Amino acid sequence: MAMMDMLPMIAMMVGSTSAGVGLVVHLVISILIGLGLTSLLSGALSSYGRGAILGLLYGGLWWVLGPLLIMPLMMGMPVFVVDAAGLWSLMGHLIYGLVLGLTAVAVLNRRR
After folding, report:
1. Are 71 and 1 in contact (CB under 8 A)?
2. What pTM was computed for the model?
C-alpha cells in the first residue's frame, strides 16, 4: 500500500493526509476485521482447509465493502470502480483473508 501511495488516501477518511496516520487507521481496521472473523465464524474454523476458504471469502467480502464501497462513499468518489489499483487491492485482501483464516484456525485449535 505504501508503494502505491494509498496510505494518505486512507488517512483522508479521518481528515488527514499523513501516510503514518493512514497506516494506523488501516491497522486498526484490519484488527477489527480480524476479530470479526474469529467472533462470527469461530465454530466453522475447524480445519486449515475451511480456514483458508473462509478467509479467502472474508477477504474478498471486505475488498468489496472497504475499497469498493465504504471508502469511496466516505470520500465522495464513485463506488465499485475496479481498475489496476483495485485489482492489486483485491490480491492484498485475499492474501490478508487467507493468512487471517489460517492463523485463526491455529489460535482456535490451541484453545480447544
Report:
1. no
2. 0.89
